[in-house]
Amino acid sequence: MLRGYSFLEILYLFYCKFISIFLIPHSKIVRLPIDIRNKKAMSFGKNFTTGKYCRIETDRKIKKKTLIIGDNVQINDFVHISAWNKVIIGNDVLIASRVYISDVSHGNLNLYDISIPPKKQPLHFKEVIIEDKVWIGENVCILPGVNIGKCSIIGAGSIVTKDVPPYSIVVGVPAKVIKKYDFNTQSWYKIN
């Protein structure tokens, strides 16, 4: 299992595993450094795994669970999850590196007042739900109000602004469905 790692890398992994036990009980491994803000508003399932330099945050004033992560979820390096209202990530979800998931934004394009600096614009919230067995590619951005259906694949570099149906592959800016799964043929077919 540890073949191919240097002695220092093995020490680092054991250190991360030891810290994981206290930081997020029932996790598989949480690689350090990691920035977790307001952990009491988060719920982590079994076998949670992270890469390095992740940032997982909720509003410090919130006491209810606004981030719920299911079992066997793996997030890789530099993932940023911001859950101020509600972000739910189902079971067996794989999230590649440099992914941004948020249920909050500064301002609303319909109400955006250009005389007010972006930081002072009122916050707007819409929950994000990522269902079971979803695979999210590298450099994806998932914006507020999105529901990603089970067993879907989000292509690398996509910006997801609308709901994704179950058993779909989406790509692009903004992300659009390019394939769906056919249970009769047990294969993916192209969407015209």
Biggest sheet strand line-up:
1-4-7-10-15-18-20-21-22
The assigned structural class equals: mainly beta
Inertia-based shape: globular
* Mean model confidence by pLDDT: 93
Q: How many helical elements?
A: 1
Order of helices and strands: HEEEEEEEEEEEEEEEEEEEEEE
Distance N to C terminus: 44 Å
Please tell me about this protein's structure:
The protein has 192 residues and is mainly beta. The chain is 9% helix and 34% strand. It is built from 1 helix and 22 strands. It has one helix at 7-23; strands spanning 29-30, 34-37, 42-44, 49-50, 54-57, 67-69, 74-75, 80-82, 87-89, 94-95, 100-102, 104-106, 123-125, 128-130, 135-136, 141-142, 147-148, 153-154, 159-160, 168-171, 176-182, 187-190. The strands form 4 sheets. The chain has a 9-stranded mixed sheet with strand order 1-4-7-10-15-18-20-21-22. The protein has a 6-stranded parallel sheet with strand order 2-5-8-11-16-19, with no helix packed on it. β21 and β22 form a beta hairpin. The longest helix has 17 residues, at 7-23. The chain is globular. It starts with 6 loop residues before the first helix and ends with a strand. The model has no long low-confidence stretch (mean pLDDT 93).
Brief digest:
This protein is mostly beta strands and 192 residues long. The protein contains one helix and 22 strands. The strands form four sheets. Strands 1-4-7-10-15-18-20-21-22 form a nine-stranded mixed sheet. A six-stranded parallel sheet has the order 2-5-8-11-16-19, with no helix packed on it.
